[in-house]
Amino acid sequence: MLPDVLRIPSQPERHHGRTEPLESQEHKVKKSQPRTSPGEYLTVLAGMWVALVTKREELGCQGVSPRAGGLKFDSGSDVDPGSSFTSHESISMWPVYFDLYPDGEAPSNSQNIIGGYVVVPHLARYLVSLKRKTGHHFCGGVLISWSWVLTAAHCRAGNSQMLIVAGEYSLSAFEGTEQVFRPARMVVHPDYNPTSKNADLMLVKLRRPVAYSPFVSIVPLPAQGVTAREGRFCQVSGWGYTSPFGGRTSDTLRSVHLPIIPTGKCNGSSSYAGHITKNMICAGFSTGGKDACQGDSGGPLVCDGRVFGIVSWGHSCASPKYPGVYTAVANFQRWIYKAILEN
């Protein structure tokens, strides 16, 4: 019989702002030992690794339910959460890059997203660009599986009007790393309120899965109800305006690191005065100067290698006393998984 849990003990070594590259690992699972009994499956605890099932088309995917038996991935998978297989030959583990900083530290190379810096190409590989069919970028999004993108509900557009581009870096240049998709389905959270921006969340299913490459990756979700720690610096990336006064979106991908702001402070009378719901988190500086802006909407706020927020709204951009407001992804983990299973 197969073990109940396949543990991947080694992790990428953490350093300030980067993860050391490691070789891929392959873990063989004998084909003569498939699990087929309902309720039995092999759980892969991969930590900061992506699980890539080799010869996937030969394994016989039984849909997104572990009840069929087979493999189940807890985090960092190239398949939809809960996907199952009835037979398997091997699992390859690939290291995933996450930009990590210790508590209270921000990168020193920030210059004049707003107040941010140009990202080294293809380090925020989980980010996608949502474009009009004309090719105009209008929102960001994040790959949470090879078939699903998480973004903001206010970024919704008609299926025939939207393109999703993974592996993007420069909006104006074709670099050969891009993968372009059309949406198969969009699932807006049923509680989304366009006035208050509560539950500003949408899932986009791609018509075909993203092909694995060194230029794309997925990012795991936080556990249900787990919040990012106040004061923790998190990374937001996008192609949005680089000036609070509008103008053009950035041609190249930019990032900025912002601290999580206590909800009470963000909701105070001198700031958003009660407009921050329990499904929102704030990140930024009381003095302003650094923020996401138009064009960054729908992009991820990544803390400790997990997507804790989705760029939602704010008062102008980078304004003093008004930090950026993000949808609190941890409050919607169960809805996300349920929506994926049902669609």
Structure description:
- This protein starts with a strand and ends with a helix.
- It folds into three domains: 5-12 and 22-95, no CATH class; 127-219 and 332-342, Thrombin, subunit H, CATH 2.40.10.10; 220-328, Trypsin-like serine proteases (Thrombin, subunit H, Beta Barrel), CATH 2.40.10.
- 47% of the residues are buried.
- A hairpin with a 4-residue loop joins strand 11 (137-143) and strand 12 (148-151).
- It has a seven-stranded antiparallel sheet, covered by helices on one side. The chain has a six-stranded antiparallel β-barrel with strand order 17-18-19-22-21-20. The chain has a three-stranded parallel sheet with strand order 1-5-7, with no helix packed on it.
- It is mainly beta and 343 residues long.
- The chain has two helices and 22 strands.
In terms of topology, how is this protein built?
Blueprint lengths: L4 E3 L6 E2 L2 E2 L5 E4 L12 E5 L3 E5 L16 E4 L16 E6 L21 E2 L8 E6 L4 E7 L4 E4 L10 E5 L12 E3 L1 E6 L13 E5 L26 E6 L15 E8 L1 H4 L13 E4 L16 E4 L2 E8 L10 E5 L4 H10 L1
Parallel strand pairs: 1-5, 5-7
Antiparallel strand pairs: 2-3, 4-8, 6-8, 9-18, 10-11, 10-13, 11-12, 12-16, 13-14, 15-16, 17-18, 17-20, 18-19, 19-22, 20-21, 21-22
